[in-house]
Amino acid sequence: DAAARCTREVEGLHDFFVKWFTGEVARTDEGFRRFSDVMDATMEMVTAAGDRHTLASLSATIDCAHGCMPDDGGGVSFAIAIENARLVRTVGSGAARSYLVSYEEWQTGGD
């Protein structure tokens, strides 16, 4: 069902973020495609602090953050958990269908 597919996509994308931020994924265009290929050009993200990011600003921020959370060997690695994901709205149909999903993102490690 659509809600389960959306949840899997959110979780998979955040798995990529962990690999990107820890440097497990190479800092190449190909490595970055897991993010760039699934984002709509008109997307916006609002942070917990209320800051708005366009795709361009978010892409630049994520790109520059490659490897910023290396494993320190202390046993607490950087991780992201997704909780309470839910499908809020479906817009359009067919190939033009989009989904609005809300979720909580919990980060640990990387201090």
Report on this model:
The chain has 111 residues and is an alpha+beta fold. Helices cover 35% and strands 27% of the residues. It contains 3 helices and 4 strands, in the order ααββαββ. The strands form 2 sheets. The chain has a two-stranded antiparallel ribbon. A two-stranded antiparallel ribbon has the order 3-4. A hairpin with a 5-residue loop joins strand 1 and strand 2. The longest helix has 21 residues. The protein is globular. The mean pLDDT is 91.
The separation of the N and C termini measures: 37 Å
Helix percent band:
25-40%
Oligomer: single chain
Strand order of the largest sheet: 1-2
Order of secondary-structure elements: HHEEHEE
Major sheet attributes: 2 strands, antiparallel
Category from helices, strands and their pairing: alpha+beta
Poorly predicted regions: none
What is the overall number of helices? Answer: 3
Computed over alpha carbons, the radius of gyration is: 15 Å
| Total DSSP E strands | 4
Percent of residues in beta strands: 25-35%
pLDDT averaged over residues: 91
Described by the principal axes of the CA atoms, the overall outline is: globular
